[in-house]
Amino acid sequence: MGLHISSQVSIPENEIELSAIRAQGAGGQNVNKVSSAIHLRFDINASSLPQFYRQRLLALSDQRISKDGVIIIKAQQYRTQEKNRDEALHRLAELIRRAVVIKKKRRPTRPTKSSQQKRMDSKTKRGRTKGLRRKVGYEE
User: Fold this and answer.
1) Is 135 part of any domain?
2) Which of 45-49, 72-76, 135-139 has maximum average pLDDT?
3) Which CATH number characterizes residue 81's domain?
4) 45 is in which domain, residue-wise?
């Protein structure tokens, strides 16, 4: 079946390495005996992802991507292994989806004449208001 990324792209399950590990943090005695956290490893270079996807992922400056091009995700939010597994796969899919989105380049615009005029009018009005707060007959 695999992990569904988009309508054309999906990752086969054999390319994603999942292993159960013991979770860190609070949990009482349970945390010492149950391996409920999931450690996900995904090798970008050895994957069947399209070239464009791989280039975009490798160009990311994300701490979850190692220098060798391996995505490492640790999911330990939930108490059950199944929920943590689903969470890890969801985070991997989101990371890949976010990497391929091309952001629109921002074109700097100039403020309009009316916005500049409004700004100057509000400054003048504010100055008058503050001027009325001065003591009567006060000169600098």
Assistant:
1) no
2) 72-76
3) 3.30.160.20
4) 3-100
Return the residue matching tokens 């504010």: 126
**CA 11 to CA 76: how far, in whole Å?**
23
Q: How close are the terminal C-alpha atoms of the chain, in Å?
A: 81
Side chain identity at 138, as an amino acid letter? Y
Check: pTM over 0.85? Answer yes or no.
no
In the block, tokens 């003048």 appear at 124
Confidence band of 28 (pLDDT split at 50, 70, 90):
low
- Domain count for the chain, please give it: 1
Structure tokens that stand for 4 in this block: 């569904």
The order of strands in the sheet holding 16-21 is 16-21, 37-43, 70-75
Q: Please name every residue paired with 39 in a beta bridge, in sequence order, or none if there are none.
A: 19, 74
Q: Which residues of 41-73 are buried (b: 16+ CB within 10 A; e: fewer)?
A: ebebeebebeeebbebbeeeeeeebeeeeebeb
Residue 75 DSSP symbol = E
Residues 140, 136: Cα–Cα separation, whole Å? 12
In this predicted structure, the answer to whether residue 29 has a pLDDT above a threshold of 90 is no
Residue type, 112: T
